[in-house]
Protein 1
Amino acid sequence: MQTINPLEFFRTLPPKQCTECGTHIIEQAESYLLECDRCLSRRED
Ligand SMILES: [Zn+2]
């Protein structure tokens, strides 16, 4: 049986992905965004 350390759990979380195209989103100030820059800008057209 394996005990999961909460700190270890958060460290191994997969990178955030764009909900539109699946591109990995680089964490930054706007990390609450669920879509990548490309999809966001395309949406504004
Ligand atoms: Zn995208």
Protein 2
Amino acid sequence: MLTELSKLSEKKIGREPRVCQSTDPGQAELRQRIQELGDWFHNIDLHGVQTAPGHFLGDFPRIKWKHLADVIPQDLTGATVLDIGCNGGFYCLQMKQRGAERVLGIDVDDRYLNQARFAAKQLGLEIEFEKRSVYEVASLPGQFDYVIFMGVFYHLRYPLYALDSIVKKVGKQLVFQTMVRGSETARAYADNYHFWNKEIFRDPDFPQMYFIENRYADDPTNWWIPNVSACEAMLRSSGLHIEAHPEVETWVCSPRHVQRDGRFILDMELDGTL
Ligand SMILES: C[S@@+](CC[C@H](N)C(=O)[O-])C[C@H]1O[C@@H](n2cnc3c(N)ncnc32)[C@H](O)[C@@H]1O
């Protein structure tokens, strides 16, 4: 996935992936352990050693987190958190450091899960990590106050199935982020259009998703890339209320109309009653 892109970018800008140099023997051993865990996508500071200092997006995902940091409560004492596609665990660590009682990170990739477990242990934080797909969230008992769903949507062949499944798990807030391409302008559209109105589809701001048959950014797991209007339309259509849009590809939402006549949208869609 993006690891390939990362390597490509490193080549393009003529930099070798690098790790911090230090003469401290403790740090040398730590650096060695970090390297043994494979390529990291999350740059995490572990006692002064960076796990992905050559990331092609810069200090990632701290550059994303800085937009979110003030939108999510500083004090999460007692809160429960689910991070879907947790990768190296950066967001899990942040949420735990804000006092969350329970943080569960799920991902389908053992390499990332092992990195996340290592990072949490190094920082002395008790976080659960589990190998589980987003499509299996329904089997997790109960809801979570905060659900983080960042950087996964566009990797899915069935993105709305995933979003509608996730909505059932959100107690207070969903943090949603996806790659966005095309128009970055969200506009309000009419409730209905005449069958012969074809013009509307030529409007670049109209909600649309690009389907990638082969590869985008060298990554065969990039399937559907929405524009900004489509993100907002899908979030609303899944019954969410958009509370904040702290940067172009990230939204913070709360559940609003996630049920109709006491039933979740996903269940109604699956049994043909929506
Ligand atoms: C681009 S990374 C995003 C990581 C992190 N959430 C972030 O925003 O920085 C995508 C992550 O989603 C995971 N992933 C891909 N498909 C998944 C699925 N079906 N269920 C759960 N995680 C998945 C990948 O293993 C990877 O860790």
